[in-house]
Amino acid sequence: MKIAIEAQRIFRKDKHGMDFVILEELRKIRDLDHKNEYFVFVAPGNDVCLDESENMHVNVLKCPTYPLWEQIALPVAVKKTGADILHCTSNTAPLKCPVPLLLTLHDVIFMEKKHSGSSSLYQKLGWRYRRMVVPYVAAHSACVITVSEYEKKRIKKYLDLPEDRVKVIYNGYGEHFRPVSDYYKVTSMYLPDKKYIFFLGNRDPKKNTEGTLRAYASYLGRSSRRYPLLIADLDKNYVSYLLRVNSIGWIMPYLRFAGYIPNKDLPYLYCGASAYLYTSLRESFGIPLLESMACGTPVITSRTSAMPEIAGEGAVLADPDDPADIASCLIRLEVDEAYRKNISEYGLRRVAEFSWKTSAEKLLEVYEDTAYSVGIH
Predict the structure, then answer these.
(1) Within a 10 A sphere around the Cβ of 201, how many other Cβ atoms?
(2) What is the pLDDT of residues 338-366, one digit of tens each?
(3) Residue extent(s) of CATH 3.40.50.2000 domains in the chain
(4) For labelling alongside 24, which of 51, 204, 221, 249 has CA 20 to 30 A away?
């Protein structure tokens, strides 16, 4: 087969969740499959992070906007390759596709009622674009791939797709996420403190940044150690605004701001943390859960959406709408060393069930099944 794969954003420097998913899967597919021929389509960027091979070709497509890139430039380029199928990996796809389409739909949050909170103009435009495009392309896809059983149920509910048209392929985590003892040589570049609590947030309301800050304030009021909170991916002005509207400005001296953290530095930041907060309101998977557990760091996550499915029965689960509950979990990890050790060891066992190699193998099975179903031999 000739397989075209959309990976539009993987060459951008500041990569996020969906970018890493397809990048890692492509690297494993390149190692595993020497039979099919692959054409990977990306937008220009400064981080050329995917090497070509004899049967994997990287095609850089230039276009002024994402919708034009996806709706016009991509289908034209796919047709020129003579590809048998196209796999679009980031929730959306061309409305008119020249070949059978596979769609990875990470979530259908855009179909649900919005959580309260502020969203950027970019997020609002993306929301509207997905609401316009996804129902049509999902209905016309040969197969829809998603990342958890929870999300599969949501997709079936909102898009009314048949059971056999939606396949679940769990994400993995990078092999460089593992326990390290010399973490301070990297963490010291981000904050002077040798112990801290870690939180990766952004302005998306589902990340529950506001609730997490309230939980941290509750923790400070109850803790004798008062570890600082390292916040990544959020600017100080935005956090200051949240503190002001919640009347907790007094916690600012305890906050540390890291900005964007390159993926290569994240294992050290996890390992240096006394706990990692993944207290979102809604997630379709949660790769940071696996990354933190793989580093042996206790993670506190939410008992909502897909997070219990991924973190497993032995995880520390809290109510994301209850700051006091999150704070209680932090306090217990802080004062109960045996409990903390059990959580750390559980996490290391749990992540053994996930890998990018397994994800890639299951994706190759979907390619083969799709080829058979549409008559490609």
Answers:
(1) 22
(2) 999 999 999 999 999 999 999 999 999 99
(3) 2-172+355-373, 184-353
(4) 204
DSSP state, residue 375: T
Which pLDDT score, from 0 to 100, does residue 124 have? Answer: 75
Q: Which of 34, 40, 85 is nearest to 60 (CA)?
A: 40
Please name the residues in contact with 285: beta carbons below 8 A apart, sequence gap of 6 or more.
106, 147, 148, 151, 170, 171, 306, 310
Q: What is the pLDDT of residue 40?
A: 98
Architecture of domain 2-172+355-373: 3-Layer(aba) Sandwich (3.40)
Q: What is the pLDDT of residue 114?
A: 67
Strand residue runs (E) in 43-100:
56-60, 85-88
At the topology level, CATH places domain 184-353 in Rossmann fold (3.40.50)
The token pair at 136 is 């049509």
Q: What is the pTM of this model?
A: 0.93
In 3-state terms, what secondary structure has residue 281? coil
Cα separations in angstroms, 178 against 270, 347, 348, 371: 9, 11, 9, 37
Whether the Cβ atoms of residue 41 and residue 59 lie closer than 8 Å to each other: yes
Residues of the chain with pLDDT under 70: 114-122, 377
